[in-house]
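Try this one yourself first.
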C-alpha cells in the first residue's frame, strides 16, 4: 500500500513538472491540489 502511494506521489510530481515546463498553469494547479490531498491522507494514515 505504501509503495503504491509513494508511486502516486512521484507520478504526480513528474506530471506537475511536465505541465509547468509546457506552460499549462491550470493543469499544474489542479495536479498540485491532488498532490497536497494525497500527502495529507498519507500523514493522517500514519
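Now uncover the answer:
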Amino acid at each position: 500500500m505504501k509503495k503504491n502511494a509513494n508511486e502516486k506521489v512521484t507520478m504526480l510530481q513528474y506530471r506537475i513538472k511536465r505541465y509547468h515546463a509546457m506552460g499549462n498553469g491550470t493543469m499544474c494547479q489542479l495536479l498540485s491540489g491532488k498532490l497536497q490531498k494525497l500527502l495529507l491522507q498519507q500523514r493522517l494514515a500514519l
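Discussion: Residues 2-38 form one domain. The chain has one domain: 2-38.
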